[in-house]
Amino acid sequence: GKLGRYPPWPGKIVNPPKDLKKPRGKKCFFVKFFGTEDHAWIKVEQLKPYHPHKEEMIKINKGKRFQQAVDAVEEFLRKTKGKDQASSHNSNEEKNRRNSSEERGKQSAGEEKRKASLSEGKLKKGTGEGKKRVSSVSSERGSKSPLKRAQDQSPRKRGRPPKDEKDLTIPESSTVKRVMTGTVAGFKWPPSVSEWSKLARPSECFVFSIQPAVCYQAITKKLKVCEEETGSTSIQAADSTAVNGSITPTDKKIGFLGLGLMGSGIVSNLLKMGHTVTVWNRTAEKCDLFIQEGARLGRTPAEVVSTCDITFACVSDPKAAKDLVLGPSGVLQGIRPGKCYVDMSTVDADTVTELAQVIVSRGGRFLEAPVSGNQQLSNDGMLVILAAGDRGLYEDCSSCFQAMGKTSFFLGEVGNAAKMMLIVNMVQGSFMATIAEGLTLAQVTGQSQQTLLDILNQGQLASIFLDQKCQNILQGNFKPDFYLKYIQKDLRLAIALGDSVNHPTPMAAAANEVYKRAKALDQSDNDMSAVYRAYIH
Fold it and tell me: What CATH number does the domain containing 348 carry?
């Protein structure tokens, strides 16, 4: 049932690669998910047998990808069953041949014993010795001790499978049947440690698993595993969205405008979680992939808004946000009483306030909801959403926010989210510039940049952000995860926010100048970590 904020997903337990370490802490199994190329370490308590929960999960999850995953499971089961039947048939034939051979051997041995017995009886008639010898021979042939017999008959030692068994799954094994039938007949979930220990091989267990937890190491794409084990899907108080409980997608029609680095990941996750989504992008070709995944195509922003209940937008800057709403065939032309518009762009408070006013003036409802994160976090559905404006609309967006992010905050009146987002990005941009400054200073003073990173990763500054951005720099890989031009834009807007309230922002101002130099060096469309190049030119 409710196994986390993401729906359960069918998978099978497999052996991890040799060089992949098992996470510390609670017992985990390495799971390969059907219908994807995803693998992850999943905690025992987040796994359930496939067959007893199959129908229940299919009713809950209507998404196209989920159905494809179930189809992949069934196909795997059919192939495996066919192999098992062929193997069983061959085994039976071999057993029959072996039994026949043994029977002939026994008959031959019995004849020889009879002849030997008669011969000995003639030589030692009346001594009784012949009887004793026959008895002795018979005794020796069947004299194995009970312990020895038990050892010979016992199956292969339980525990870890042999190294050459890379993808062991025997879905119809007696062990799995025992666990599955137990589930139906009062078997408690999660199973106890002793119950799990009954598995002959962990890889024999088919599972429905949520897609995340703290104890994971992903091989391809990072799966998102919720740390909490139980909870509610409702919005908590006034600050954050609950991050656990299965997502039940809203029955409202969702529109999405803008399929850039962030928007693409958001739409993908909305579709995965079963939402009905209509998309539009200025470059129409970007819509094709999402149409294949089940999205509908909108010809203009106005058409999307007029045909959907809630329309989200995520564009690059204040000018783009205004043009989208106020321009030809824009959002405003599709707004009617009751229509909802959620702007997820990172812009200044004045811009978002102006947009809110024109939307509300037409009878629409407005929410600002900029997101903190990058392309990878967007793809993983692990963004942080900062929302402000119509509180009722915020609650209506609950399932959407859970699909795209790990948590959300409601910050009150329109403008508050924009201000908070600029402050967050100001801190992030300044920190990135400082990282680049430290790495270049290490280089010019003859220090190892890799050693500097190793030291930082062992100290209080250790973070995924620090490690990823330093690795980008050391490898010379500046593929955009967060465009440099956008972090510079956010620094500029944050400085203007400080100026509006006479608050000094000297650190942000200094960082802004470094990013401006990087832009002059044609780094605008690279990742923000390319600010490093401003220090080496």
Answer: 3.40.50.720
> Residue 306: which residues within 8 A CB-CB, separation 6 or more?
334, 336, 339
397-421 mean pLDDT:
97
Report, as an integer, the average pLDDT of 121-149.
Answer: 43
Between CA 60 and CA 27, with CA 7 as vertex, the angle to 5 degrees is: 130
Helix, strand, or coil (residue 418): helix
What DSSP assignment string belongs to 272-287? HTT--EEEE-SSGGGG
- Spatial distance between the Cα atoms of 152 and 95, rounded to a whole number of angstroms: 17
Cβ atoms of 54 and 180 within 8 Å: the answer is no
Domain boundaries, position 342:
254-413
Alpha helices for 235-307 (secondary structure H): 261-272, 288-292, 301-307
Does 303 share its domain with 345? yes
Calpha distance 232→247 (Å, rounded): 10
How far is it, in rounded angstroms, from Cα 532 to Cα 242? 38
Give the pLDDT score at 55: 79
Same domain for 526 and 425: yes
Claim to verify: residue 336 and residue 391 sit in the same structural domain: yes
Q: Tell me the whole-structure pTM to 2 decimals.
A: 0.60
